[in-house]
Every structure is written in C-alpha cells, then in structure tokens.
Design goal:
This protein is of the alpha/beta class. Helix content is 39%, strand content 18%. The protein folds into four domains: 92 residues, NAD(P)-binding Rossmann-like Domain (Rossmann fold), CATH 3.40.50.720; 60 residues; 114 residues, Cobalt-precorrin-4 Transmethylase, domain 1 (3-Layer(aba) Sandwich), CATH 3.40.1010.10; 118 residues, Tetrapyrrole methylase, C-terminal domain (Methyltransferase, Cobalt-precorrin-4 Transmethylase, Domain 2), CATH 3.30.950. It is built from 16 helices and 16 strands. The relative contact order is 0.07.
Length: 436
C-alpha cells in the first residue's frame, strides 16, 4: 500500500485554498461540503496557514506554491498542490458520495484516469439509496447496541438487516416499513426469515445484467441457476455463495420443475437469501410464474427482478427494430416448443396482426412454423432471421426468408440458444457497420 487512507474531520475547521483559477475553485467545493471554512487567497502569506487543518494550492505563482508546500510541511499541515506530487503530503482520491457513506479510490498517482473509471464502476454498483440505508442504520445504532450487547450476535443481526428485507424496503423507497422490520427484528433478536428473488440474468453478457440483479448476486447465500445463465454472469456472484445447478433435461420436465419449486421453498425456510437466477427475464418463458405460485402457496416471501429478454437483446445487437412505424405495429413473443411433436399454435391471428414475431425455442419446430404461417397467408418473402447466442459477444445471425431458415438452419446451428424473428421490420434492420 503506497498511502495510508484516512477521512478527515473538517467541521468548523479552517482550510486554505491558494490560487484564483477554476481548479482552485473546484477544489474548494468538497472542502466546504465537508464542513470546512474555506479561506481563498491568490498569493501566499505564511500567516494564512494559522489555525488551518488542511491546505490546497492550484493556479498560483510557482514561488507561492513552493512556499505553501514548505510552510505546511514544516507545520505538519496536510498539503496538496494540484498535479505536483513532489509538493504534496497527501493526494486527493476519486470519491463517491453516498452520505454518510463515502468511498475513496486512489491509484497513488499512477493512473488517475483508471481510478476515475473504477469510481464510475463502484458508483454504478452502489446506488444512491445506500446513503438512505446507512441513515437507517445510524437511526437504530444505539438501540441495536443496547438490545444486542454481544458483538458477534449484533454483527449477525446487522448483516441480515442490511442485506435483507429492511434493505430491500429502503431501496424500494419504503423507509417506514423498513424501520418497522428493524424494530420487529430487535424485539425478537432473531434475523428475519429467508426470501427468494426470481432474478432475470439477461441474455448472457455480464454488462446486460441489471444493477438490482447485480446487487442481489453479491448478497445471495445461495444461487439456484440453470443452463442459460452464462459463466460471465455467475462470476459476478458472491464468492462464498452456494451454487446449485438445476439445468433441465427435455424429457422429465414436470418432475424437475416440481423439485426446483420444493428446493426454493426449503432453502428459504432455512432462513437463506436465495437468488433463483434465470436466463433473460424470469417471466418470459422462464417458468418464473410457476415458481412464484409455488412460493406464494408455501407462504415464502419473494420478489421478481426483470431481465433483458432474448428477443430484445437479439434484436438490439442485430440492429432490428422490433416495432417500426412503417413496418410493425406490434411484437409478439411466442414459444415454438412442441408437445408430442406438435406445434400447438393459432396461426391466423398471428398473420393477421402483421407485426414482428419473436419465436423462442423455435429452431426445432421451424418447418411446422413455416407451414402454419404460410398456410394462413403470410407472404413467403417476409424477412426472417435466426439469431444464436444473442446479446453476447458470440451472437450469430442467419438472415433470409423462412425457406432459407428451414433449409440452412439445422446445418448452420451450433446448438446455442437461438431465437427466430419474423416480419417486415426484420428487413428494416440497420446494422451499425453497414456501409451507407
Ligand atoms: N427467460 C428467457 C427465455 C427462456 S426459454 C428469456 O427471457 O430470454 C429458452 C429460449 O430462449 C431458448 O430456446 C432461445 O429460443 C431463447 N434464448 C435465450 N437466450 C437466448 C440468447 N442469448 N440468444 C437467442 N435466444 C435465446
């Protein structure tokens, strides 16, 4: 570690800012925000340092900056001269302000731009609501200390409160309810029960996961996931969270789903924070509805976190507008899943709608899909597209008519998850690297 990090108490203290320019003005702002009385000077007089807790120099004559640095160092006053490490006794970090939480990032001057990029990442991870969560904790600090004198127990209860239901209520803007949960927890001195989060993990790319999903992945005790969730997404989960793979086999679907439901109920009843992580969105062909019903029936608390569903991710990356004022006034999500080899679909209204069709699990049933749609009047020349591993760096596309997809699809496929898009809007795709 190159520097020793500290947070300075400046309330009611004097801070000297030497220099007239915009940088000096910018440096004065956080000092004032931290409660300091800021003295601005354009030239240096050693007397200006009297009573000062900190000093900053920028945009001042060279001799004054040197004099400031030497005098402050001699008197043990922390001093920073902007962009002059040799004149500094401290450096200013890139900060994230979630009052009362403050996060400071430093690269020890080696790569300030990188420090700022890291700050941007942390900023995205720690939503402003964390400030409100800290305020809630502060409000109950004394009560918690009195009620739970044992440190280990206090820590356990606090961890549960700060990652559990109370925190989720604060993030949802429901502070009053959160306060009641804290009170109830203190009454019983027991951590609140488990909860299940049905979380959409998006199409597989790590940066298409929502911030809410990311937060829950970082807090989960156990993650129940299936085949569609990629390693990139799972890698973002808490390292010591238990992971349970419940990938489905095509044949014994029903039984497996019941087992998954029972597993979720059992884990929650053990008091654990369960993330049920699904590809795309949990409520779009993800059986999230069945799991939600089972949880409700068992009296287990749960919440649903939406994700970027395959159709949206595939279309966006392929440059295809799913709706278009001149080509598609609707978009329909369909499943091409067959029952006993038959595609059970009402084709007439789909053709009549004249919008975009997004067919999930439709690769195997493509011939039946083409037959049904054309038999009900769809123009055989209607643009169509097969998109594999959409929304990831490995997205592949096969463009053409339904005929082409049926003829070439099977050989083209590399067995990754694939979606079929059909409709006039598919032909209006504008690819970002297309030549004008
Ligand atoms: N809940 C998921 C869908 C689950 S059904 C969602 O909202 O996306 C599984 C089907 O989704 C796959 O057979 C495939 O048709 C589609 N799918 C899922 N991820 C995909 C991806 N990255 N690219 C293309 N299709 C995908």
């Amino acid at each position: 570690m190159r520097h020793y990090p500290i947070f300075l108490e400046l309330h009611g203290r004097l801070a000297l800012v030497l220099g007239d320019g915009p940088i000096a003005a910018r440096k004065a702002e956080p000092l004032a925000a931290a409660g300091a009385t800021v003295i601005r000077k354009s030239t240096f007089d050693p007397k200006d340092l009297d009573g000062c807790a900190i000093a900053i120099g920028a945009d001042a004559p060279e001799a004054d900056l040197h004099a400031l640095s030497a005098a402050a160092l001699a008197r043990g006053i922390p001093v920073n001269v902007v962009d002059r490490p040799e004149l500094c006794s401290y450096i200013t970090p890139a900060t994230i302000d979630r009052d009362p939480i403050t996060i400071a990032v430093s690269s020890a001057g080696a790569a300030p731009v990188l420090a700022r990029l890291i700050r941007a990442r942390i900023e995205a991870l720690i939503p402003p609501a964390y400030g409100r969560l800290a305020a809630l904790a502060e409000r109950f600090k004394d009560a918690i200390r009195t009620r739970l004198p044992d440190l280990a127990q206090r820590r356990r209860v606090l961890e549960t409160l700060l990652t559990g239901e109370a925190a989720d209520l604060v993030f949802a803007g429901r502070e009053d309810e959160a306060a009641r949960v804290v009170e109830a927890t203190l009454e019983s001195a027991e951590p609140s029960g488990g909860m299940v989060f049905l979380v959409g993990g998006g199409p597989g790319a790590a940066d298409l996961v929502t911030l809410r999903a990311l937060r829950l992945l970082g807090e989960a005790d156990v993650i129940v996931h299936d085949r569609l969730v990629g390693d990139d997404v799972l890698d973002m989960a808490r390292r010591d969270a238990e992971r349970i793979y419940v990938g489905k086999q095509r044949a014994n679907h029903c039984l497996v789903q019941e087992e998954i439901n029972a597993l979720l109920v059992r884990l929650a009843r053990e008091g654990r924070k369960v993330v049920r992580l699904k590809g795309g969105d949990p409520f779009v062909f993800g059986r999230g509805g069945e799991e939600a019903e089972a949880l409700a029936e068992a009296g287990v608390r749960f919440e649903v976190v939406p994700g970027v569903t395959a159709a949206l991710a595939c279309a966006a990356q392929a440059g295809i507008p799913l709706t278009h004022r001149h080509a598609a006034r609707s978009v329909t999500f369909l499943t091409g899943h067959t029952k006993e080899g038959r595609l059970d679909m009402d084709f007439a209204p789909l053709v009549a709608l004249g919008g975009t069709l997004a067919v999930y699990m439709g690769v195997v049933s493509l011939p039946q899909l083409r037959h049904g749609l054309l038999a009900h009047g769809l123009d055989p020349a209607t643009p169509a597209m097969l998109i594999e591993r959409g929304g990831t760096s490995r997205q592949r596309e096969l463009r053409g008519s339904l005929d082409r997809l049926v003829d070439e699809g099977p050989a083209w496929s590399t067995k990754g998850p694939a979606l079929v898009l059909i409709g006039a809007a598919v032909g209006r795709g504008v690819h970002f690297n297309a030549s004008p």
